[in-house]
Amino acid sequence: TVVFSVNVLYDERIVLVAEQRPDSTEEESYQWMSRVLQAIDGIHQVGVYCLALVPANTLPKTPLGGIHLSETKQLFLEGTLHPCSILMCPHSCITNLPKPRQKQPEVGPASVMVGNLVAGKRMAQASGRDLSHMEENEQFLFLSEMLQWRAQTTPDHILYTLINSRGVVGSSLTCLQLHKRAEKIATLLYERGQLRDGDHVALVYPPGLDLIAAFYGCLYAGCIPITVRPPHPQNISTTLPTVKMILEVSRSVCVVTSQAISKLLKSRDASVAVDFKSWPPILETDDLPKRRCPLLFKPCDPDALAYLDFSVSTTGMLAGVKMSHNATGALCRSVKLQCELYPSREVAVCLDPYCGLGFVLWCLCSVYAGQQSVLISPMDLEVNPALWLQAVSQFKVRDTFCSYSVMELCTRSLSTLTDTLKVRGMDLTRVRSCVVVAEERPRVALTQSFCKLFKDVGLHPRSVSTAFGCRVNLAICLQPHRLGKLAEQGTSGPDPTTVYVDMRALRHDRQDKHNCLYVSRVRLVERGSPHSLPLMESGKILPGVRIIIANPETKGPIGDSHLGEIWVHSPQNASGYFTVFGEENVRSDHFGARLSFGDTQTVWARTGYLGFLRRTDLTDANGERHDALYVVGALDEVMELRGMKYHPIDIETSIIRAHRNITEWSV
């Protein structure tokens, strides 16, 4: 199911589109639609403009199998959705709207600050640990220098191990092997590609070790790498234009890929979607030069561009952010300290390696911190859903990273197979940290279902936690919860907390009786209360990261437990947007925002996410009270009807509760 809004009669209206089960009758579909409408009306007191059911497996999909929101909305607007059942409710969606909010007089940010002080409230700001301490390998400012140092000091140490779809080791890379392969790729770029320092190079590889080697080959040659997801062979007409668009927007002068992907780009089916003559030169890395590069590029400016990070948001916006060498090093160091990564450690990574924190954990952290990364491609889980958990059990990994898509796939596909997995020897009792990486509000129901399901094979519920990052800062929060001795010593800080808030308080701005600030004040309620919404903490703030909650309109600071936009200040912030494609109203001050009152000198980056900070009674490892960050949702996804704000995830949750046949993974 997808939820979005369309403009009708100068206001936004809610639209629901769902895929109908193949075995559903017309009567069952009507019952489902009726219950969904009743649930949304009863829980949110708002009408639905259109509810459409389409045949199974006909909506456009994302690479990991989810429904593509922006493309589905475009089909609806174009009238090409072709639903098999549709229910239009124009009368109810107009008569059942919230009452229009009256415009209140503007209150200056100075009055807000004074009001908070008079009321005895603290401003909503928090920070992670200090980054003042330096270790031996942190004297290097560039990842290319770090790799060369590891190749000289620990040449036989294994950095990466790739698990294939059968669950066995497909290939591995030591420090020296990665260094030599990167040298040869740099030679390829110099000799065959005739590339110069600063040229942009698109790396189009499936998840694997070739992607990692190509990335460091670009650094050795002084080129700027851009990792791009390859087109799907079974859906090349839809996925190939996205690849071509990223190449054009990123201004890539060359494509580096494998022979198999190169043949796919030159195939007849690909030529129908994109003319092959329009592609930049393509270099294949299957047959590399025998001799190594005579002279490796030596960067000298830490603020220079290291790589570009491109991703497509749920609203269809393609955005590329600039990551400097300084920001990349600070990010790797922050993750290393938070997760306690060292050469003696092993971690399992089952994430998309093309953008965000998934790319950092897949390609960068092992070279920086030296730990061995066991890599599992999320695409292989479609063939073998138990692959990730089997690898974690087989290699006795204690720390692992995944995504909600991976967690959802495992929960859906293995729900009836836990006894079989236990007989086959799956044992997750050694797992002390399972971190879910996401750019969204934590999915409480899915996380609880996952923990409950795999508790039978030894997974401890306390080991599962979450991380949060966004475009302006790829890793803001990360909670590597530890079990056993580390937990007793308190090195990981307190457990992530879950609170229940009044959903109605998040919908509209209202007046605070103390400081007259028209922002939403979060009201905590008991579990099970009417209109209660569970929110899970988004992880512990990373070292070197400062967070403040600000009013997105007045840019003034907001008090504790008040809803506002999350702003972040950190050396690991991205330098700025390289380009934005698909949305015109992106804020120009995303990376250079300043508060209108209070600390007006600090430069902040605006995340575009709504959330709040809440000081808890728990204490961190240093004895200070713990500040918990709760992410509510993205500003770009908020639907506003008569001044009332609705988040699509809340509508989806109501749909899940509407009928017993609807589950977390069907939405």
UniProtKB/TrEMBL annotation:
The species this protein was found in: Danionella cerebrum
Residue ranges of domain AMP-dependent synthetase/ligase in the record: 147-478
Protein name, as recorded: AMP-dependent synthetase/ligase domain-containing protein
Alphabetical list of InterPro entries matching this protein: AMP-bd_C_sf, AMP-dep_synth/lig_dom, ANL_N_sf, Dip2-like_dom
Domain of life where this protein originates: Eukaryota
